[in-house]
Amino acid sequence: MDPGQFSLVMNSGVDAGELQGKAEETFLNNVTAAFLLLHNLEKFEMEFLDVSYVTSRDRVENWFGPAWID
Q1: CA dihedral in degrees (58, 59, 61, 65; nearest 10)?
Q2: In angstroms, rounded to a whole number, what is the distance separating the alpha carbons of residues 12 and 46?
Q3: Reported pTM
Q4: How far is CA 27 from CA 20, 23, 58, 70, in A?
Q5: Residue 46's closest CA among 34, 58, 62?
Q6: Strand partners, 54
Q7: Angle of CA points 47, 52, 55, to nearest 5°
């Protein structure tokens, strides 16, 4: 975690392909939990050995809609 940038990088240690199509679901579950638990977190990155996924709090809030903030 980088407190100056309010970002978190999670290293999985496996190829996304090994998860049989579940890499995106794994990312979405982890990013949702991270933003709900860490209120000052602004950027989340999940690194697999073969691919990385990155998103911001704004994108997740827009995806969930107004209920996210309540």
Answers
A1: 130
A2: 7
A3: 0.82
A4: 14, 6, 16, 23
A5: 34
A6: 45
A7: 100
**Tokens linked to 54:** 């990155």
Tokens linked to 12:
């999985």
Instruction: List the strands of the sheet with 43-47, edge to edge.
Output: 7-11, 43-47, 52-56
For residues 25 and 59, is the Cβ–Cβ distance under 8 A?
no
Which residue is it, tokens 């240690």? Answer: 13
User: In the numeric block, which tokens belong to residue 61?
Assistant: 């809030």
pLDDT in tens, 1-60: 556 779 999 999 999 999 888 999 999 999 999 999 998 999 999 999 999 999 999 999
Which residue reads 């940038």 in tokens?
5
